[in-house]
Amino acid sequence: MSEIVLKSREEIELMRESALIVSKTLGMLAAEIKPGITTLQLDALAESFIRDHHAEPGFLGLYDFPNTLCMSPNAQVVHGIPNNDPLQDGDIISIDCGALKNGFYGDHAYTFAVGEIDPATQKLLDITKASLYVGIDQFRLGNRVGDLGHAIQKYCEKEGFGVVRELVGHGLGRVMHEGPEVPNYGRRGTGKRFVNGMVLAIEPMINRGTRRINQLKDGWTILTKDGQPSAHFEHNVALIDGQPELLSTFQYIYDALGIESNEEAPFRAQPLSL
Ligand code: MG
Ligand code: MG
Fold this sequence. Notes:
Elements: H1 9-30, H2 39-52, E1 56-57, E2 69-73, E3 76-78, E4 92-101, E5 104-113, H3 119-136, H4 145-157, E6 162-163, E7 169-171, E8 178-182, E9 199-202, E10 205-207, E11 213-215, E12 222-224, E13 230-232, E14 235-240, E15 243-246, H5 251-257
Helix pairs in contact: 1-2, 1-5, 3-4
The structure holds magnesium ion (2 copies).
One magnesium ion (MG) binds near residues 96, 107, 109, 203 and 234.
């Protein structure tokens, strides 16, 4: 991972543009996710949508990744490759999307339910998403990387869920993976200090069972060792005047799905205007 690069207010506004293209792409996909559609079909929709918004897919070709979206169903944690298998009622699908515009990356993720899912899996999604905001709330001047990771870990482990350790959040900017590394576990008062101008991709990856993972022979796909489901939620957040400010939003997803939520409000300097 490269070094930490602090951003000016102007650069942060450019990053908000990149982030919102990803947010809109995930919102567009939310309306298309249903039993029968394939992850490759969704990938093609996302690539066209991003290019129509005068941006480039951020993952396509990055480290030789073959597609626009990382598509990780069910027991896959992250980095799944889109394919021709139709999604089925009761599946979950983690979609991670990147976009590059004006030289800056957006990079965030959401785990969707396909049709009706069982209550234990719904709880995994709810807790993982809530843990993302628990983490964001720690991204404040005076805190450190370990405070953020500790908060996410504690929140998820008290539910008996496994916190993946091998993959971490990161700084974001002109490079997809900048410093600092942002683990979803840690010890309070340890690690890099947060400073104004940092932009992070905060992204808990949480398993319903063991935290242990395997990697498929494709060299990409990460999946749970015990075959139980895994969830992944990610936001892009800037530290401005000591406070976390969301650059990304799930509101496009909620508008598509008819969900009411105020979860993002504490992390905006002013109300979101879409
Ligand atoms: Mg991501
Ligand atoms: Mg990321």
